[in-house]
Amino acid sequence: MSNKNVLGIEWINFFSATPDMKRTYLGLVAHFFLAYPLGNLIVIFPLLLLSTFNWLIILAYIAWYFYDRKSSIQGGYKIEWARRWKVNQWFADYFPARIHKTAELSPENNYILACHPHGIISFGIWANFATNGSGVYDIFPKIKFNLCTLAMNFKIAIRREVLLLFGCIDCSRESIEYVLDKCGEKGRALALVIGGAAEALDAHPGTHILTLKTRKGFVREALLTGSHLVPVYSFGENDVFYQMSNPVGSKLRTFQEYARKVMGMSLPIINGRGFLQLSYGYLPLRRPINTVVGAPIEVAKVENPTKQEIDELHEKYLEKLVELFDAHKEKYGVDKDTRLIIK
Ligand SMILES: *[C@@H]1O[C@H](CO)[C@@H](O)[C@H](O)[C@H]1NC(C)=O
Q: Where would you find the membrane-spanning parts of this chain (predicted)?
């Protein structure tokens, strides 16, 4: 390609870009504003300025906010409009992000999709399950997917509406149990990225390290609601950003672990690409993300699961996840001797 390298930075040459490059660039930029907290802020700020002197707009929003306050814990919005936007497909095609189905999901059951690894911001899960960008509506036509994320996100004006339009809901117990049990529907699937902020600190290209050994809340919820457990692994999720080296015990890691405990955010120091050049920035690199959806593990509903029942199912889950990883790793660029590390 004829990108120009000036001052050690690789600038994008838009004039020689192919139609595919232009489309996927548009998809990437659009989803920067939709998915990133920072991107949302850039959109919200001018709106705030606009409405500063207009009390009517502010009052109308406050009324809406109050009216809509339970959506994130009661299954989210019904409308699927934003999830079908064409720009989502361009975004998924950027990496490209793809779903690989290994078994059917029957609409007679509900599911918890336990997704790994978290990566820096889980682009694969966003592209594949929050949008129809890679065709999830065709791949699992009878299942309704919702992505679960931190309650904090639904407190922020505009960000909450954006996330809800993309099918995101609160990851609290109350919210999960509402969708999988109380609302009485079937064919619902909740995607949970189990490792969270802790796992993001291990998201270095080429690594496969999960924070999962002591995370059992999702197993308990599966038992409580009788939802089948589906292991999901996104090959390539850790490859879309470089992260500054932070081995356990280093000063940086110690600080990051501290920040995570105090603020709930893990502050990985990352580098990807920028809007105009490919050398620095917070946009992800163009590397494939292959999300393999495993076969569901059947779970029968238990009113009060005991510690032993939870541990047994967790053990079985880990076994199935490792099997899934090993069965598919070589197809998606992982060496046959590479093991999944579970911390
Ligand atoms: C979902 O995406 C697939 C593949 O891109 C497309 O063929 C299909 O029409 C889309 N479905 C809806 C309902 O938008």
A: 41-67
> What residue owns the CA closest to ligand 1's atom 1?
135
Q: What is the spatial distance between Cα 281 and Cα 38, in angstroms, rounded to a whole number?
A: 13
Sequence-distant (6+) residues with CB within 8 A of 308 are none
Instruction: Say if residues 297 and 316 touch (Cβ distance below 8 Å).
Output: yes
Residue 2's pLDDT is 62
Ligand 1 lined by 86 (C-beta under 6 Å): no
Average pLDDT, the chain: 94
Ligand 1 pocket, mutate which of 24, 101, 132, 140 (most atoms under 8 A from CB): 132
Of 95, 94, 83, the residue nearest 135 (C-alpha) = 83
All domains in the chain, ordered by first residue? 4-35+69-342 (3.40.1130)
pTM of the predicted structure, to 2 decimals: 0.95
pLDDT, residue 38, reads 82
Provide the token pair at 311.
């541990």
In 3D space, the residue among 336, 288, 333, 260 whose CA is nearest the CA of residue 124 turns out to be 288
User: Length of the chain in residues, anyone?
Assistant: 343
Burial annotation 142-163 (CB, 10 A radius, 16+ → b, else e): ebbbbbbbeeebbeeeebbbbb
Q: 300 with 280: CB under 8 angstroms?
A: no
pLDDT digits (tens, 9 = 90+) for 12-71: 888 888 999 999 999 999 999 999 888 888 887 887 787 777 888 888 989 999 999 999
Q: Round to whole Å and give the CA distance between 140 and 101.
A: 9
Structure token pair of residue 340? 């999944």
